[in-house]
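Model it.
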Amino acid sequence: MPPSIPANVAAADMRRLGNAEPLEPYSGRAREPWMCRHIPCQQVIYPNRNNVMNGQGACIWCAPNAPKNPEEAKAAMLEHGFIVLVDFLGTGKPWLSQCVAAGHIVAPRYDNVTGRNGGCRFCKRYGPGDPHEAVADMRAAGFRPLEPFKNIASPWLSLCERCTKTSTPRLNNVRTRGECCQHCARYGLDPGAPARLYVLSHAEYGAAKIGITGLRTREDRIARFRGHGWVPFTQIHFATGADAYRVEQSVIRRLRIEGHGVFLGDVQMPIGGYKETFDATSVSVERLLALAEAAR
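Modeled.
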């Protein structure tokens, strides 16, 4: 008995709905496994046409709940432009990673990256950076670059044409914030002005955080964090921002050497500051304070 659906139509349905290329002739039976190759992941699969037509998907390896070898998943992410920063949690879970092209910290999902060619959301918005446009944007913001362009997320040694001092702003910050010279901007941290180092905790995230801010800035950084569920634990005052920065970096550098990585991502912290977060079960706020006091 001839198949009710022509073979060429059945094959076209598999390509259109299942993103799968048949590797054998259609048997004519919709519920029978059909050997195909899933185009996004290149795995050999055996879906049946009936399930694919009903929208169940063709590939068991790309399903949200599919098991994955963590090392293979890590390698696949690297092939698509991401260096993963934490252990693999599952194909449909956000995976904290670093964009290779521009250094952005992002949390894409494995299935989006490998199955849909998902890329870095920051690079899609701002682009990895054209050198000529990059220089033009820096000059428009009052900076004269002193070294070749790397990418939009790396510190870029430049001369501020307002105060004639050198600093290292990031192009993505210049594009989104405008003036951001660490010496003459009216926000952020002034290296020569009084500053404070703070330690915060977040019960819901199970996180601890260290940070620094100026005492004479327009924005109350700690109050802004408090509005996002962070609770202040302590503050240490410094005569200059440079001193506060030195102590903060000393604490972070020691903990990174001990193997404590970045705990949260920009998904949990849309206002920034996630690079200074730690798992509170292994790095407590008391430990952060003790390390800061020791580094003074």
